[in-house]
Structure formats: structure tokens, C-alpha cells
Specification:
This is Glycerophosphoryl diester phosphodiesterase membrane domain-containing protein. Keywords: Membrane, Transmembrane, Transmembrane helix. The chain has 9 helices and no strands. The protein is globular and about 65 Å long. It is about 70% helix and about 0% strand. It is mainly α. The chain has one domain.
Amino acid sequence: MRRPVGSVKTGFAAAPGSGMAFCMDSNTSSPAASPSIPDLIGQAWRLAAQAALPGLPWLALLALMGGFYKWALTTGAGGTMLALAALVVFFLAGVQASLMIYRAMIPDAKGAFMALMHMNLAIYLAFFFIGFFVFFFVGIFGVVMLQLSGLVDLAAEGADQQIPAALAGMMSTPYGWALSIVYAAGLGGLAFLALRLLMAGAATVQTGRVMVFRTWRWTKGDVVRFGAASLATHVLPFLVGYVVNLVIVNAAGQGEIAVFATGVSGLLLQVPFILAGHGLAVAALRAMHPPASVA
């Protein structure tokens, strides 16, 4: 349960039909108890259903751009420049789809395309640099564990051909367990970062200002609660979509048309994940009652 906060000088408008008001009077104490995990999940999926129709054309465009990017990257047609161009268009389509989904979920949203694009770029860069250093360390640790295991001499000639078999054999030993723990810790750190930044996109669209680490303090003490809710809004729908598309990929083969089609289907099957993920961000934003005038 979140402790009540002192008076707040501004607030958000109530969301029609949401059962939760954003508005807080300047002289009243803040909010009632934060919603439970089931309440967050329920709100997220209700918001997902609310945004499904307005977001559908943009999600369809995103899926088409995803299929084009996968085709350009897999086939190499057009070279590196075409693949990069396809990636840029895919990113821009994703920002627009996200913006339209948030606008359907948030009444009187002030955010525009450029603010949301800048927010996304900032978060992607943060994850890139943090992820690079995390997995660089994990890779170095894995090399050390592999050498200490004695299953392969990394300095010997032809050692690179023995590494896959040696790595597979090492995973059932204490060296492999140590590597698994370090790898899990790295993934856990990135998941923690993602949950602390859960509301950044929703807050950016709500306020009209680029909000990245400004939302950090709003999620303090709620990572476990948001993480548990995300199992039903992020993890489960993503895994279901991924597994179903994996079956489609295996059935379709590796022809150029199949590559494009499975790129499209892969994104379409992630529509529930995308909608519910945005829904959880908005539900969390409402629950925390952050002031709209945060600098």
C-alpha cells in the first residue's frame, strides 16, 4: 500500500468509465490506496480493448513495415542502406502507432509525435549502452568460466570450433551455474530498469513533455507489483505470439514471400502484447497520480 502523499497543486482529469479520477485538489490529501495487481491487470486489458479499434490501422502499418524490414534484412536485397531505411521507417511507424494507442487511452492527451519519438530514442539509447556493458561483462565472465572449467583450452589452435560443445557441457557444472546466475542477474537488472521507466511513454503523451527519467521516482517501491502485473500484460501475450509465429515460420519455410509474411504475422500476433503493455503503463500512471506540472 502506498502511503498518502501531501497536497498536490495540480492533477489530471478523470478518465471516463475508468472508475479512477486523476484530479486532486490543492488542499486535499492524496489518493486512496493504490490498486492491487489484479486491478492493474484488469485496467490494462480494459484500456487495451478501448484502444484496439483506433490503433488497428497503425498497428497494421507497423506489421507491414516489420515484414518489410525482416525481408530486407534477411534477403540482403538492396544492401545495408535499404535495411537501415526499413528500420527507420519501422521505428517511425511504431512511434505513431504508440501515440495513437496512448491517445485512445488518455483523455485530453497533449503529447505529439516528436516528443514521443525523442522519449523512445532516449530510452533505446539508455538500454543499448547499459545492455552493452552488462552483457560485455557477462561475456567476459563466461570466457573465464569456460577456461576454468578445463573443458577447452581457449589458447589452443582450433579452440573456437570446440567452444559450443564445451559451453553446453559446462552448463551442468558449477561453472555453468555461476554463469547462469550472472546472466539472470543481468537480465533482471534490465527488467528492473524497464519497470522503473514503465510510465515514461504514457507520461510523455499525457503532459506533452519528454519524460524519461523524470518518471523514475514515481515507480519507487512498486517494481514488484508492476512486475507481477506485467506477467499477464507483457510476458504471457508475448510468449504466446512468439510461439504461434514460430510454428508459422517453420511451416512457411524461408522463401522471400514467406520471410515477409512471417515478419508481418509476427507483429500482428504481438498486438495483444503491445496494447496491454500500453494499457499497463496508463493504469500505472493513473495509480501513481503524478503531477502534470513536473519539470
